[in-house]
Amino acid sequence: MKTLRQSIVMPLLFAALGWCQTALKAVPGQSLSVAQSKASVQELLHRPADWNNVPLKRVSLNRTPPLYDTDEPAVLEVPSVDVRSARAEGKLLVQLTWRDATQDAANLAKVPATPPESRFRKLPTEADDRFFDAAAIMFPAKLASDLVAPSLQMGDNDRPVEIYYWNAARGAMVMEAQGRGTTRRTGQAFAADADYQNGEWTVTMELPDLPTDTTIAFAIWNGSQKDRDGRKYFSVWQLLK
Amino acid sequence: MSKHQYAMVMDLNKCLGCQTCTIACKKLWTDRDGTGYMYWNNVETRPGLGYPRQWDRIGGGWKDGALQPSPLPTMDDYGHAWEYDYEQRLFEGKRKPVMPSPEPQSGCNWDEDVGGVNGDENYFFYLPRICNHCTYPACLEACPRKAIYKREEDGIVVIDQDRCQGYRYCIKACPYKKIYFNEVTGKSEKCIFCYPRLEKGEVNACAAQCPGRLRFVGLLDDPESPVHKLVLVHKIALPLFPEKGTQPNVFYVPPFNPPKRANYGKSILEDSRLPLEYLIYLFGPEVKDVITRLESELKKAQEGGRSEVLQLLIGRDAETRYRIRPQLVQIQLQGA
Amino acid sequence: MSNNTSKPWSRRDFVQTAAVTAATLVLPGCSRKEKPVLNTLIGDFDPLRSYPYRGWEDFYRKIWSWDKVVRSTHSANCTGSCSWKVYVRNGVMVREEQAADYPRISADLPDYNPRGCQKGGCFVEYVYSPQRLRYPLIRTGERGEGEWRRASWDEALTLIAEKLLDNIYNHGPDTNTFFSVIPAMSPVSFCAGSRLAHFIGGVFLSFYDWYCDLPPGEPLTWGVQTEACECADWFNSKYIVLWGSNISQTRIPDAHFAYEARYNGAKIVCISPDYNASATHADLFFQINPGTDGILALGVAKLLIDQNLIDASYIKEQTDLPLLVLTGSKRFLRESDLKTTGKEDIFYFWDSKQGLAVPVPGTMGSDQKSIQLNGVDPALTGTFQVELADGQSANVTTVFELLKQELSLYSLDKVAARTGLPPHEIELFARELGTRKPAMIIHGAGTNHWFHNDLINRAFILLVALTGNVGKNGGGFNHYVGQERIWPEQGFFKLAFPETRKKQRFQNTTLWSYVHSTNRDPHLYNGKPIDWYIQESVKNEWMPLWPKNGKKPRAFIVWRANYLNQAKGNEILESSLWKDLDLIVDINYRMDTTALYSDVVLPAASYYEKVDINSTDCHSYIHPFGKACEPLFESKTDWDIFHALAEKMAEVATKKGLTPFHDQAFDWNRDFTQLANDWTGKGSIQTDEQAVNFILGNAEETKGMTYQQIQEKPKRFIATDPESWNSDIEEGVAYTPFKHQVDKKRPWRTLTGRQQFYIDHPWYIELGEQLPTFKEPIPEKYPLYWNTPHGRWSIHSTWRDHRAMLRLQRGGPIVYMHPDDARKRGLKDNDWVRIHNEVGQCICRLQILPGEKPGRVTMYHGWEKYLGFKQGGWQSLTYIKIKPTQLIGKYGHVNFRLNYWGPTGNNRDIKVDVEKAKV
Questions:
Q1: Of the candidates C195, C184, C207, which has an alpha carbon nearest to the alpha carbon of residue C496?
Q2: Strand pairing partners for B83?
Q3: Which of C51, C174, C492, C673 has its CA 20 to 30 A from that of C252?
Q4: Beta strand pairing status for B121-123 and B116-118?
Q5: DSSP output for A163-232
Q6: Which domains does chain B have, with CATH numbers?
Q7: Nearest alpha carbon to residue A96 among A222, A204, A215, A220
């Protein structure tokens, strides 16, 4: 049953991967250096060249198991994501680069402001079975006095998280959560830039100025693998340095 | 479990295949952005492809206590909501015939009236379908966010349009494929059993607007309701695919077709145009008993007698067919 | 947590709570041991039991909201006449729902609610659709190209007014032709134009016969246009024969009465070449060979008589079967045969008691205005001798004897072979028809659209007359094709033709279309071409032909109709009649084919933007149209449009100083400067509401009712005008016709005062049709019958281009074909195919349908030419054929009257072939 997977298997998996992370400071293997950039936020968002001097961290990705026997298997097509981060103008810019053979994106039409009954032609659903490439960065919603990281499963009641989520079709949105199944949009947008070239995504996000030692984790969704929700690639907690 | 359960009975011997129920639902609920292709209520010709295509053969539901989600149907399985370029032909002098776009290759009623062949004789019937508002909904169980719930006061199953994130496990899990994804909003939607109408004492639009008058609506546990009588007392209405395990709350009075050529007078068990095996496929082995009893009731009436269950199925007026109890089911909502 | 750890995910016991009474009931289909169990869900709530975040539910509540609701209906010629509620939100009509408030007739009869179909349920979309006409348009390209320029009302009306007046003064008033159909569906809108036609001497075309919806057997046998029971009366029947009528598709709001009658003890027989949505609900299905319904009926008549299942006393009193016929001349014995001063319309039967021929009471010439037999016992059988006026002796026999002779041709084996039906089932059918009472035939276009429809009708009526079922609740021959019944008829006539119908030019459209086009029927009838019969008919003044003196029609004004799309042989008409017309005006709310091919198009208000009333054969209520909003864009109601046109014509006449036109035919001095004044009844009928009230106030059926009153809910008629109708309205009883005759013994409206099966008009005798007989369909050279019935997805051409409807089909026109016929031609489902014959062709998609009859292909009718065809349309294969018997007149009750009698536009005898199209 899915729920048992949720309640037993998933925590076991996450625990196995990051068991030490829930109670201790992260080991050096999970540190993420943040550079100081002389460029502006706009330049960092939209000019790839401004990232040339920022070192990258190749963060390993794990794959969640399928929820159901009848789901498509969880093949590891995206083994890692390259993370670069830099501070500029009081913001933290994080750039994620990963290989993805297919670009799963769409130009979804914007819903007009007029009520549907006043229009003869409404926006159609072009496809019901496509999932889009996406990426997200998760970090604690509030600073913890101790250095205990929230649960990798979208935090928990005591340690809520913020998730800066970018979707190739739906854009960038800030989410918050206090545990699996509680994720919700805050309604807030944030600046992001995305580019797909030669089988590779590069997504740059403007995050708040997170302090050093903030735990931060990454997730990638591969649309062609029908990724969404907990069906995804995830990293263990990294520590901003 | 919910305190009460609204249920619906559909008498397939009265269905005209007119799709008025489909339009009633469509014009009320799914005439918005992203919903053009959705038919929360649809009527399909059986045997047939169904809507979406092959929904009855691809999976979903429960098996040995485990969910068996199927793959997602594609837009070709549902059929696209075709658009038409009227303006160029009628007003702009472009002289091209008005044509549907995209080019039709499939649709929700693609094989209307085709049916099956028994020997060389055609048979078919219409099967109107809505969400079954199951007692053990596979969709509810499948949602990782618990965004689908069963209303505690009346058993109607709904998808929280705020909390839904469009993961679509519910669509995969539903054995009846009665949930639809709205790609414009990024959320899944389904039949809501017209709860806004029931709350005001009005019956569902699909029932209220059915000119065949084949739908009966009421609370299963209300002994005065027609659904209670038909399902639990007369026992002549059965759910679809009971082996899927969700315990639907929509029930069907199974259909007859006339006898084959030269068989006038023969019973449905002797030689039926509509093969019993097909009814068993849809409704389970209990249908054999139900159809036999219905046949004898019909014979009784046609020979001058009076059949209580058939008199009930006549459904002379709205009071007979619907028993909506807004006061009875009303509760104080918490956390609303 | 689970105790069973053999699998990571295993069953968990389901915790039952006290409130779970529903779960303890043994529900079908899911026995207890199979019930799936749910695991405990993590988190603090179980959505199966309750949910903490229900505030979002207002999302759907808001969708079911409105700020105004208005009652209205639809005017499409569907016979539904359904009352609907239109919901408006922020000034936009968002949806409609059946009003479902027709009052009950009785506790036992199922009520009429809800009344309405899927088409009515989405009309709102038409109101705002791209096809909606918004402004007056004048064509700039060729007819049909769709190139227009927007014009002002003034310019458009002036153009029309000038042309109409020009025609009158320079060519004759009969060169202005008006075509609008079916007053019952919206009489005020109809009358708007008929009044104008009336005051300017224009020709008013027929439609009920042209559409082939008129069952000629009814005027022939009963002397009425059509009279059927209201549909609630189906519930009173114990034997319902759906014959050529697919009620599941074409009587959507009423079909339930038949299927509910079945539960109440009726048996249903469905006779149709295809297995269809009505056949599925039948007890007995006859998959009859196309065009052989007549022989089946006559074979059954023979069985009824042979097995003495006839109602002899009924037949003697209510039919002409006992009347005496001279065996030599085959004509009825008349008083004029027996006396030199004798009348032509007094007839005789043989009184068995007295042993002599006595005059039949209640005939057209009889002094006795009753058919009461008064002790006479007319013989049904026997041959007798009478002495003629010249002293000679002559043999006479009864119609019944002659009928038996005719029926002897239809042995069971012959009938079974020709119809393709099992003989023992034909016998069972005859036995049941003869013994189950009351029994009725619900008759439809499937049999009425054939060339020999008059013979088929007469044979069917014979069956229900022989068994005494006509004029009884639950019985009869009931025909609903075409919403022809305007219940408050006398009020309507006064509004439609104020100076009476005697001063109005009327024209049968079948004849008009045939004569004024290059359409020609190559067949010979009794060795003569139809043109010979036409000439005779016109010469004898049996059928009018306008314009007179070899002139051609010049102006053609169409509203509430789609003449060109629906016309048999429309491709032939397009290249001849249509071309020859000088001015074509279409008044419409959408751009249909006729509008597309017109010169001037005027935008009309839609069904939800006007005031009018609606009635139908199918029920006995009156109910209104209403305005959900004022006419949108620049549209106007039909009433206002014709009012404006009348004013414009008056203005032009005044400006040009036109002297009154003396219309010799009626000795009528037409002063067009007064036209607007005449049209408004000297100012007494200005608004559409006044027009409604005029009709209501001038009819027995609705006296005392007003438009305001009937907006509350549909009202049952209070009485019937015996001038028009043949039964009373009885409280608590469904209406069925001919109770005046059967119960009150009033004469039938026929020459013989009875249901008349013997028509002794010379042409009938020459053609061998004095009695119902069987004639084969007209021979054509191609292999497949071209079947174009009415279906569920449109009302004629309305809704054919409606997106919501198209999305529930295959998106465009389809032809249906049996798998065997398709296989022979290498055709696959959804192929583009070319349908062709000597007349023309069309290219559309194919659907393979096992229920179709091999040897026939079906395209449900009404597809607009401009949608979905790569070429042609469904009428590209047809042409107009006129039957000689339908051209007669001045025969007692058989005279031309608009929509009552005249050649019908039959179409089912057409044949085609189908091949894969090269596209």
A1: C195
A2: B101
A3: C492
A4: antiparallel
A5: EEEEETTTEEEEEEESSTT--EE-S----EEEEEETTEEEEEEEE--PPTT-EEEEEEE-GGGT-BTTBS
A6: 6-77+109-326 (3.30.70.20)
A7: A204
Minimum CA–CA partner of A123 in chain B: B33
pLDDT under 70: residue ranges of chain C: 1-43
**Which of the residues A6, A10, A64, A70 would you substitute to probe the B interface, choosing the one with the greatest number of B C-beta atoms within 10 Å?**
A70
Containing C709, the helix (H) or strand (E) segment is: helix C707-710
Distance, CA of B324 to chain centre: 19
Distances (CA, A) of C136 to B26, B89, C151, C586, C599: 33, 17, 5, 10, 11
- C420, C424, C426, C427: CA torsion to nearest 10: 160
Phi, psi angles (nearest 5°) of residue C647: -65, -40
Nearest to C290 by CA among C269, C271, C273, C270: C273
- CA distance linking residue B186 with residue C690, whole number of Å: 54
Give the mutation candidate from C9, C13, C44, C128 for the A interface (greatest A CB count, under 10 A).
C9
Average pLDDT over residues B157-177: 97
Q: How far away is chain B from the Cα of A44, in angstroms, using its nearest Cα?
A: 30
Closest CA to C409 of C418, C420, C399, C422: C418
Query: Could you tell me if B34 lies within 8 Å of chain A, comparing CB atoms?
Result: yes
Residue B102: CB atoms within 10 Å: 14
Residue C22 and residue B155: Cβ atoms within 8 Å? yes
CB of C48 within 8 Å of a chain A CB? The answer is no
Chain centroid to CA C774: 24
Q: Are C606 and C96 in contact (CB under 8 A)?
A: no
Instruction: Count CB-CB contacts under 10 A for residue A157.
Output: 11
User: To the nearest whole angstrom, how far is the Cα of C103 from the nearest Cα of chain A?
Assistant: 33
Radius of gyration for chain A, computed over Cα atoms and rounded to the nearest angstrom: 18
The enclosing H or E element of C446 equals helix C445-448
Q: Which chain B residue has its CA at the smallest distance from C848's CA?
A: B114
Count of CB atoms within 10 A of residue C457's CB?
28
As for the ipTM of the complex, it is: 0.98
Residue C482 per-residue DSSP state: S
Facing B169 at nearest CB: one of A67, A109, A170: A67
Residues C564/C179, Cβ–Cβ less than 8 Å: no
Contacting B with CB below 8 Å, chain A residues are: 1-3, 6, 67-71, 108-109, 111-112, 116-117, 121-130, 170, 180-184, 228-230
Is the separation of the CB atoms in C769 and C298 below 8 Å? no
Which pLDDT band holds residue B95 (cuts at 50, 70, 90)? Answer: very high
For residue A29, what pLDDT is reported? 74
pTM score? 0.95
Mean pLDDT of all residues in B282-299: 98
**Touching check for C90 and chain A: CB below 8 Å?**
yes
C555, C169 contact by CB (below 8 A): no
